[in-house]
Structures are given as C-alpha cells and as structure tokens.
TrEMBL record:
SMART domains: HTH_ASNC (SM00344). The keyword Electron transport does not apply. Keywords: DNA-binding, Transcription, Transcription regulation. Residues 80-147 form the Transcription regulator AsnC/Lrp ligand binding domain. It comes from Saccharopolyspora oryzae. This is Lrp/AsnC family transcriptional regulator. It holds the Pfam family HTH_AsnC-type. It comes from the Bacteria. The lineage of its organism: Bacteria, Bacillati, Actinomycetota, Actinomycetes, Pseudonocardiales. InterPro entries: AsnC-type_HTH_dom, Dimeric_a/b-barrel, Tscrpt_reg_AsnC-like, Tscrpt_reg_AsnC/Lrp_C, WH-like_DNA-bd_sf, WH_DNA-bd_sf.
Length: 360
C-alpha cells in the first residue's frame, strides 16, 4: 500500500508522516528503500513525503555530538535574567552562539533557560562570566554545571511504530563502540557539516568539507560507529501531540538518584535527565500533552518516589533554539547554528563579538 489509512493523528501530520518521522528517529540515515519496506510504502513515496516535511520546516534530521561526546566536555544550564523588554533580543543572540545547545523563554523565576557547552571548565567560565554576563540587556546569570547526563532528548520517540518495525530498522541505526579521543580538525569539520542535514549524502559532505569521497565515507563511518556523533530526527513540537515543554528542578538523595533516574527515563513525558550542581541536584525536561498535565506528572513522580523533592517547575513559553537549530514560534526549523564547544579554541577571541554588535 502507498499510504497508511486513517485520519490525521496530529494537525499537519497524518499517520504516514508520523510513521516516517518515527522510523528516522530509530534510524536517521536509513535508506528510503528500507524505510519503505518497513512501512509498506514505496521508496519514492517515503522520499517525497519526507521532502515535503523538511521543506515546510516541520521535521528534519540533524547531527550533533553524542551524549557520550558531550560528557567529555563541560555542560551547564544558565538561568538568564534580562532587563524589561530585552528578553527576545538576548535570546536570539545566545541562540546564534555555537556554544548553546538550547535556548528557552520560560514563564517564571528567570527569563531564559540556556543549555551551554564548552570544551572545558575554564572555557565555560569565560563564556559565562566574560561574555553572557556582559551582553547588553542581561541583568544576572545563575549557573548550574551538569555533572552527569542520564537521558538525552535523542532517545525520545513518537511511538508510531510497532516493536517489530523498530527492530527491522535497528540494524540501520548507528552503532556505538569506544568513544574516540580528541576530535581531529577533519572530524570537527564533518560534524559541523552534518548539523544542517544529517541525511546529506557522502558526496555532498565531501564537497562541504573539502575532503575526498573515500576519506569522508570512512570518517563518517568511524564517527558514527564510535558513538561520537548522534543523528536525530527532530519534529516541530506542536505537531507531535506533546506541545507543552516544562522544566523541573528537584533534590533527590544521592544514593537513590540512579534508581530514580532509571525509572523516570521510562516515562514517555520525560525527554532529558541531568544531574546538576547547586541547591538542586536533578533537572528534568519534559514534553506534555497540556499544561494541566504538569501537575499530574508531579503527583505521579512524588507518589512513586516520596524522596523526590520538587524545588521548582516552570512552563516553557517558547523554544528559541533546540539542538543547533533556531526555531520559529511554532517550533519549525528556521536557521542552523551548529553546536561547537571548540569554536573559540586557539582563536583568542570570543564567539559573541559579532552578535553583541547586533544588540547595540
């Protein structure tokens, strides 16, 4: 059959679109032939439908450093407080910096919540103290350094496929062996080239990086198989059926943290779990069906884990940047800003100079 039967499950995406996106969440660089075989579609139908979603900015495949690679650098979560009327401009400035993974405008307690990454603690300190804190419009920056990533957003799934379909796609998913050491300049260039289109063919990647086709294919395979790069299919959030984002800060006993995180990671609402420094020691990022679901989620977590002490829970008003892509107000991709913790390495100058000029 050429299309799945049934009415649209989510406005703008029908069941076939959701199935294709789910298939690419499991195996982001799988061939259209394989995806078509798994879904009962022709390769041409799958490619045509996917091309339409990408053109509309509703879905895309990108590539960033894997959670394993990010664990080898320094991650932090910044609460940025802005002068009245300056939040939007500061948010866009930070979103256009390659050291930010995500930028969100939130409803209370702080104006912006920013996930930043730098090659080491001194570089992170310079970024926060010498650059972010001095941006025009910024009043205060509170920082919590990530000490462990328990769950990353690339593990979140639409759940539009059966277990059998996912298993058929699994051989095409990128493997993960031993993480390589320091990335070479060529590895770095390839990682940045993949950010704009994680499904780009080897020939195109070779042209972008100036390497030979053979070297690019070999390098891509090595990065993927070593677990240094994470390919991920992103979908405009308001089309997923989970349109509401929240952030939850909690305190949990150290001895119970692993057990609690293992159980929270099985909840479909939970996208990210990170251990952090500070008065709270766990940050939970969620996608929910509605704002009412936020309280329901709190109650279910606390009922299951009485030792889980919730310190703060905020609603995200707008996601400005997610995993290297600036988004519009509906969560559609707008502008690619590849994540690059090493952007200022050896340069002796900050990456925000040009952006700060735009705010003047």
């Amino acid at each position: 059959m050429e299309d799945f039967a049934g009415a649209a499950s989510v406005e703008g995406l029908d069941e076939t679109d959701l199935a294709i996106a789910n298939a690419l969440q499991v195996a982001p660089r799988a061939s259209w032939t394989l995806v078509g075989e798994v879904l009962g579609l022709s390769a041409a139908t799958v490619a045509r439908r996917w091309g339409r979603l990408v053109e509309r900015g509703q879905a895309w495949v990108t590539a960033t450093g894997s959670p394993e690679l990010w664990r080898s650098v320094c991650n932090a979560f910044l609460d940025v407080h802005c002068e009245p009327g300056e939040r939007e401009r500061v948010a866009l400035a930070l979103a256009r910096d390659p050291r930010t993974k995500s930028v969100m405008e939130v409803a209370s307690g702080r104006d912006l919540q920013v996930n930043a990454v730098a090659r080491d603690l001194p570089a992170l300190s310079r970024f926060i103290l010498d650059e972010v804190s001095r941006l025009p419009g910024v009043v205060k920056v509170d920082t919590q350094v990530s000490t462990r990533i328990y769950l990353a957003g690339n593990a979140w799934r639409l759940d539009a496929l059966s277990r059998g379909q996912c298993e058929r796609l699994q051989p095409a998913a990128e493997g993960a062996a031993a993480l390589p050491g320091r990335l070479s300049a060529a590895d770095h260039a390839l990682l940045l080239a993949l950010a704009a289109d994680g499904r780009a063919p080897v020939t195109e990647l070779a042209e972008r990086t100036g390497a030979s086709h053979t070297a690019t294919r070999r390098r891509l395979s090595r990065l993927a198989n070593s677990g240094a790069v994470a390919f991920r299919c992103e979908i405009s959030q308001h089309l997923t059926g989970w349109p509401v984002s929240t952030l939850l800060w909690a305190r949990v006993p150290h001895d119970d943290r692993r057990r609690i995180c293992d159980q929270l990671a099985r909840m479909p609402e939970v996208r990210q779990l990170v251990a952090i420094s500070g008065s709270t020691n766990l940050l939970v990022s969620t996608w929910l069906h509605s704002t009412d679901s936020a309280l329901d989620l709190e109650e279910r977590i606390v009922d299951a884990h009485p030792e889980f002490e919730i310190a703060d829970h905020v609603i995200v008003l707008r996601t400005v940047k997610r995993q290297g892509w600036i988004l519009d107000e509906l969560g559609r991709k707008r502008e690619c800003v590849p994540i690059d913790p090493w952007c200022d390495e050896g340069a002796g100058s900050d990456c925000l100079t040009a952006i700060t000029a735009r705010l003047s």
